Amino acid sequence: MAKADQIKALIRSHAEGDNDRFYAIALQVAAQAARNGHGKFANELRELVDKAKAKSSAVVQQKGIKPIPVAQPRGELAGLLSVFYPKTRLTDMALDEGLRARVERVLREQRQAGRIREHGFSPIRKMLLIGPPGTGKTMTASAMAGELGLPLFTIQLDGLITKYMGETAAKLRLVFDAIESTRGVYLFDEFDALGSERGAKNDVGEIRRVLNSFLVFLEQDESSSLVIGATNHVNLLDRALFRRFDVVMEYALPAKDVALRVMKGRLGLMDTSDVDWGLASKATELLSHGEIVRACEQAAKQAILEHRTKISSEDILSSLVERRQINKR
Ligand SMILES: Nc1ncnc2c1ncn2[C@@H]1O[C@H](COP(=O)(O)OP(=O)(O)OP(=O)(O)O)[C@@H](O)[C@H]1O
Ligand SMILES: [Mg+2]
Fold first, then answer.
1. Per-residue confidence (pLDDT) for residue 1, from 0 to 100
2. Residue 121 backbone phi and psi in degrees, to 5
3. Based on the domain organization, do 304 and 263 belong to the same domain?
4. Distance of alpha carbon 145 from alpha carbon 149, whole angstroms
């Protein structure tokens, strides 16, 4: 059986996203089990490791690339960017096949960026993510940074525009300088602030100016950073923006099978053997990934507070219904 320090090391390597180490420890446990006469367990463990490795090989992190420590932006940049190293991985996300393939495509091109550039091409770097709230746009940006071992810089455009009325274009210049000098994933969240009526109500001239400078900066940007715009108001966006991005990814409310994976993912640590998953996934209709996650969390906490070890279909159904009612308000 695994020793206490092996279990601790497994958890530590998982938390650090160090897959190689995680599998190495699991194989150590298998070898030890085999030596102690637990051959069946050892074989099962090895098979599990092999399967997990095969599954994650498409998204495996490039060897030898270690995150570079980044200092929090200082001086003028401090109010413009926030930064951290996300631990999110693609395997944490329930995506439909189309979206997963596109995200993996970007990751593959990024990992092989050197080879692509040697042949005179550029890897995909500029992405526009559009879709309703809570469908995984921000999470995708985190997962991309997590997979590539890059820092995630977030630029809240809404804040940028209201805070620096009149000097937003100059501030944007600073952000694009940072994109050039520090490789990372740069997420322009609430991207609609640049093209929306909401913004237009405030100051049409200012929004236009900012939009124009953004387009110019984006066009000129030839850095090795990833630039991601995320918005849920696609209709409000200036069409000119679309052309500047290498890919546009559309997010939608989850289909039943994706919703099911979201629920199982969030409730992975709970005993769900009594749950009727068919019923539960039907009840997720009209809910976003984010709302489904919240409903699952509520259901799990309900069971915990009532000292029950098992979570029931009723727990899940009632919190999903409650979420739907919140939506109707
Ligand atoms: N594909 C997914 N798989 C699993 N969980 C997801 C997925 N998408 C979203 N979630 C859950 O929903 C939460 C909200 O998602 P996220 O913040 O990425 O939404 P968003 O599309 O950026 O929404 P908004 O437009 O409001 O910014 C996440 O923190 C995560 O818990
Ligand atoms: Mg978001």
1. 59
2. -110, 170
3. yes
4. 6
Question: Which residues form ligand 1's pocket by a CB distance below 6 Å?
Answer: 93-95, 133-139, 230, 232, 251, 262, 265, 289-290, 293
What's the total number of domains in the chain?
A: 3
Dist CA 280 CA 259 (whole Å):
9
201 and 288 share a domain? Answer: no
State whether 36 and 154 are in the same domain: no
pLDDT at residue 196, rounded to an integer = 55
Q: Which residues pair with 81 in a beta bridge?
A: 155
Going through 157-278 in order, the beta strands assigned E by DSSP cover: 185-189, 226-231, 247-250
Q: Which of 100, 127, 139 to mutate to test the pocket of ligand 1 (most atoms within 8 A of CB)?
A: 139
- Span from the CA of 297 to the centroid of ligand 1 (angstroms): 14
- Give the mean pLDDT per block of 10 residues along the chain (329 residues): 81 81 86 86 88 63 47 72 92 95 97 94 95 96 96 84 77 91 92 58 68 87 94 73 89 96 93 94 96 96 92 94 86
pLDDT on residue 170: 85
Residue 64 in domain: no
For residue 140, the CA-to-ligand 2 centroid distance in Å is 9
How many H helices and E strands in the chain?
15, 6
Q: How many whole angstroms from 138 Cα to the centroid of ligand 1?
A: 6
Given 220, 250, 280, the domain boundary residue is 250
Residue 67 lies in a domain: no
Closest ligand by atom to 249 CA: 1
Q: Tell me, what's the pLDDT at 201?
A: 54
48: CA distance to ligand 2 center in Å?
34
Domain span holding position 287: 256-328
What pLDDT sits at residue 82? 87
Whether residues 35 and 86 share a domain: the answer is no
The pLDDT, as a whole number, for residue 56 is: 63
